[in-house]
Amino acid sequence: MSQQINLVFFILFGIAILLVATMIGLFLVFSRKKNQIIEAGLKKELELKIHQYEVELKALRSQMNPHFVHNSLNAIQYYIQRNEVEISENYLVKFSKLIRLFFEYSGKQNITIQQEIELLQNYLYLEKLRFEAKLNYEFHIDERLDIECQQIPSMLLQPIVENAVNHGIFHKEEEGNISVSFVYLDHQSFVVTIEDDGIGMTRSKAILKNNSNGHQHRSSNVIRDRIELLNQSKSWEITFDTHEKMPEQGSGTTITISFSQKN
Amino acid sequence: MILELADSVRTGVLIIAFLVSVYYWKNYKNSAQKYFPFLMLFATIVEVTGSVRLYYEKETSNFLYNVYLIISFVFLLIWFITILKRKIIPKILLFVFLAATVFSVFTESATGDLYFYMLMTGSVFILAGAFLFFKQLIETDAAVYFIKNQQFWIMSGLLVFYIGFLPFYLLVRNLDLHDYRIGLVIPLLNILLYGCFIIGFKCPSK
């Protein structure tokens, strides 16, 4: 009788141990795996963040194009030498404001469309002082856009406009025009079109090849890298399209970027 | 007295599991678990019928339990085929189980006891299927949300039940034991099984 009680106790105890061990084992294995996956995810996120900072730094460097700074200072010097104090003073004020905006906005992920427009206008104003009558520009802003509230990734458009000036208009003999349009799609989406009637990408690339200046190539890569990162971040859905006019349509390049902000 | 209480609790938990499976069915009606309320209803009918017969007629309903076991094992093995990525192994398990069932039907009495070969192959194959499922789940990122995974809880219930049931049944079958506490094991395992099912049915299907 006592032996049977021992056996029953052994069976019940054994089954209980088996069940508890199974449940604990199962939860331990899955919890460990969960932690590994979370750790790997965090590591990946960190790497993405580092990459993002690197790209942003590159973007900042490409925006602070030394040629642009050099050309602007040369132009200021030119006006000072000609004793055109008012123009040179005006130039200097705009230049310092632009530099300040560069530094202010480069630290932000997003800025308002109004701020982006202000930056582009400042930049084009300076370029116009340098190019004088050879450069004309205009902005078209859809009235439905709430430019004071609607966000845009900071300083993404400036390098594109700079390419249009330096590689589209610069090599053109006649005067050139740049048009920047912001078109409303819905409360979270809009399209920006940057159009120039310069020499076009094909001829510009041929000239660049001879001059061995890699800045355009570098800044195009930076733009594409930034768009890719922004799409990966899931906060934006951005498409980028480049179109060169056919010879019978004249010459020039149209860049179309659609922005859709995600929640 | 304590055995009757354990049986009543087991039946109660089973009925709750059935009701929960029906209540939350809209959450998983498009998943592989969509037919589970039928299994729970069938289990409830068999359990209640078996208890009533035992109480009023003092007879065990082994024929009914054998039919229930065959249907539930086939159901679970087909479910394994649906949810496992590598279909070939659960298909082989189902085929071997059906062969073992046919063997049991022709060599064992349907009313005398539970079909031994059918029960053993079914139990071992459920454990094998659970192992394959956990291996598959742990290899994916879905393992992060295992606590909210419906299939994880159903499989955990099956694993806990059969890992306890299998050695217990083999020991008790081969030993002549007369202790009422032995009768507590199956109801307690059932309570754990249906408890896990209840948690599973409340989880989102994906």
UniProtKB/TrEMBL annotation, chain A:
Signal peptide (from-to): none
Histidine kinase/HSP90-like ATPase domain residues: 157-260
GO MF terms, alphabetically ordered: phosphorelay sensor kinase activity
Transmembrane stretches, start-end: 7-30
Keyword Phosphoprotein: no
Keywords annotated in UniProt: Kinase, Membrane, Transferase, Transmembrane, Transmembrane helix
Domain Signal transduction histidine kinase internal region: 56-135
A Pfam family the protein falls into: His_kinase
UniProt entry tagged with the keyword Transferase: yes
A Gene Ontology term for the protein's cellular component: membrane
Protein name: Histidine kinase transcriptional regulator protein
Species this protein is from: Taibaiella lutea
Taxonomic placement: Bacteria, Pseudomonadati, Bacteroidota, Chitinophagia, Chitinophagales
UniProtKB/TrEMBL annotation, chain B:
Keywords noted in UniProt: Membrane, Transmembrane, Transmembrane helix
Record's keyword annotation contains Acyltransferase: no
Keyword Transmembrane in annotation: yes
Superkingdom per UniProt: Bacteria
Transmembrane segments: 7-25, 37-56, 63-82, 88-107, 114-133, 153-172, 184-201
Coiled coil: none
Protein name: Histidine kinase N-terminal 7TM region domain-containing protein
Organism the protein comes from: Taibaiella lutea
Lineage start: Bacteria, Pseudomonadati, Bacteroidota, Chitinophagia, Chitinophagales
